[in-house]
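Known limitations

Files may contain more than one protein. Parsers should not assume a single record per file. Below, a two-record file is shown to illustrate correct handling: read the sequence, read the token line, then continue until end of file.
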Amino acid sequence: MIDNETTLQKTVSKQRKMLAALLFDSMSELATSCATNMDDHQALEALLSAEMGKAQYCKYLWVVDKTGRQITEDVTRSGLKQGQIGRDRIARPYLQRALKGDDYYLSEAYISRNRKRPSLTAVKTIYDTDGKTIGYLGADFDLRELPQTTEQYKDEKIWLQVKGDPAIRSGLFSQQRIESAMDAQIDDVLSLVEELILVQGVFHAKLHFSSSRATLWRVENPFVYQILNFDELSNPDICLAYRHQEYFEKAIVKPEKIPLIFQQFKTLRFADETIYLRAASLNVVNGMVGLNFSCDGSHYMSHEEFLEKNMTFWFGG
């Protein structure tokens, strides 16, 4: 069986499983307590309120009958949210899973109706003494308030291809590359950007060949990007504006690989007059290369894989 889950999806799945396990025991105990009070909404609300005092991460607790109609108010940390009795939750996806027989279910994340924030809902079936379903206990959680139960997601360095605007793709063969100002001085521009990376603290550079500009992120101020126009990119004096800095210690791209990567950018820019490189980026810290072509297709791959690709790969035989 082929595993089609990305690293990000696997991280999300692991997080959900651990959260589900974390909440299961308390949800089960509370559902058992609710079973003897299904005909008394005030008694149910008292139980939920007592639990809410201990439920560190919960936003709302509520109970519905076996048809999905709410028989308590929403219980919050600050009291009861009035007007919820009689609310029909049967169409909500998390309750559909319970109605289909899931004893306990932690929903996929969704955007809440009222606060418009990413949320989760856990549902536990309530049984009578004969084991028959008599209702469902629900607990809503705001993702901001849930504990982090797994390690932070780390992006995987695999080749990713993204198709762009169909309108651009449909008109591809009616267009042709027009030489930009950057094209005319591309060797000098690439040498200057290489210098900015190696000596001036730039760790991420995106070159916009068609519009003759570059977007740069620097180690000193990584949260703010800078845009250099062609006049600045074609003037080596621009280096005087930046403090001299050794090549970033966290960079995984070897310095000698940078000119090879940039030469490959140049080749892809001029290889074909119809399908050509419009923009390209290099991040020396995560080692990723980004490419955007005239067909509006985009590619993301490790710099090692990028350097292994020849023109036959990009344009065919």
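...continuing to the second record:
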Amino acid sequence: MVDRTLPDIDLDGRVVIVTGADRGLGRAMSLGLAEKGARVVLASPAFDALRVVASEIAATAGPDRAFALKTDITDLASCRACLAQTLEAFHGLDVLVNNARRPHRGPGLPPTGNSFPFYETNPQIYKETVEVNVTGTFFMAYTVAPYFIEQGRGKIINLTTSVHNFSGRANSPYGVTKAAVDAETYIWAKDLAGTGVTCNALLPGGACDSDPEREKKPGQSLLPVDVMNPVLIWLCSPGSDGVTGGRFNGSLWDGSLGPDAAGMVCREPAAFVGME
């Protein structure tokens, strides 16, 4: 049983951008960060849904904790506007959480999702998935990295997935893009070495109960949608300063340990041989 008790960490004063904050994992992480005192920029093209999440945060964490910002991460100008408006609203930025991904389920797809042999995959969906998951993640990091480097600190957290998804049957394009996100994480961590800016990957550690359209198998047990919140809060805190180039699995969090020890227990081996 996962102990999802949020760590005793105060994030007051920290400003965090969460992409894809309108639903699922992004919504859950935004609520958790705000609960611990962070000011959260909710970024997504789905502005009406973002406003609902902002209202939830206002009700649970107080006013002025969240800012809904319509953002298309596949548009570099939109990413730059996201940073500019974040700085205008909250006068700083400490963490970027690259959570946004192209939905695996939705119109035109079966309830089981976009899981086909590669030769049966819709080419347009493949292209969109690469643009959002890989290029969009890069665009946001590319936008905030110079700001972080100039201030001498900052944290980039990229959402990834379990390693078996990188090579499982019919798991393209999703698995392909998440393998690329892992590679981005390792490369960027090395590019940022010595700047005070860190880059890590975060994953749930299994299928999450984050999508109401998911077709559940009989007897299937899904991880709670907020399974990553404890380790995310630690990764956003000073306790993880200097920790970089890692993969952190939310399902491994042990709330009986102190936050720093619990955070490091969640660190998995690198996804690719020779990366550590």
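Parsers that stop after the first record will miss the second one. For reference, the second record is described as follows. The radius of gyration is 17 Å.
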